Each structure stands twice: as C-alpha cells, then as structure tokens.
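Quick check before the chapter quiz. The format below is the same one you will see on the exam, so make sure you can read both the input and the output lines.
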Amino acid sequence: QVQLVESGGGLVQTGGSLRLSCAASGRTFNNYAMGWFRQAPGKERDFVAGIVWNSGNTFYKDSVKGRFTISRDNAKNTLYLQMNDLKPEDTAVYYCAARAGLGSRSSSNYDYWGQGTQVTVSS
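Here is the expected output.
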C-alpha cells in the first residue's frame, strides 16, 4: 500500500557529503515511523537513523551521530538523510523503510522498504 523510492546515492571521497531522499506514495498511516538502514556485503542490514513522523523525534546509530541528520518534509511526503564527513566504513546500500506505530531500530519491525541506493566512499 505504501511505495518508497530512494535517490541521492553515489560515489564520494572521504569527508564528502551526500543527501539521500526517500519519496513515499500510496496509503499513509495516521501514526508511523520511518528509518534509514544500510547493508554492506557480508553484513546484516543495520539501523542508521529513525524518525517518528508526527513528532519529529529522531534517533541514531552511535557511529553516525554528529555526522548524519534524518529529517522529513511533510508537504512533499519525503524523508531525507543528510550525510556529512563520510567515511569508507559508511559504504553500503542504503534503504528507506516505514512502519505503522512507534519508531524502532530493528529492521524486522518495518513493513515497507525502498529499493536501496548505493553509497560508496573512497579512501
């Protein structure tokens, strides 16, 4: 019922910045949360940042605090992830996700997923 489409990934140098976008369409929830996850080869899909849509409350993976910012634009129904001071260890496919209810750090709690966008940070 909900479609999510990510964009904004690419190749950047260490210390560079990218802004990921996630456009949502279809049915929306009255109360829901969204998040960004990432998955590198050979690793589990890992929580990066989350936001409770209505309140704007945000929460982050410790290693990205101070570098990444999650935000949303209500008018555009779009989620963003501003990534600054990128490091090679940030290289992964980044996924946008949504769920009804409270925010969560667990990928298994999310109902809808985008197709992913590749972020590569070169040394």
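If your answer matched, good. The CA atoms of residues 73 and 79 lie 6 Å apart.
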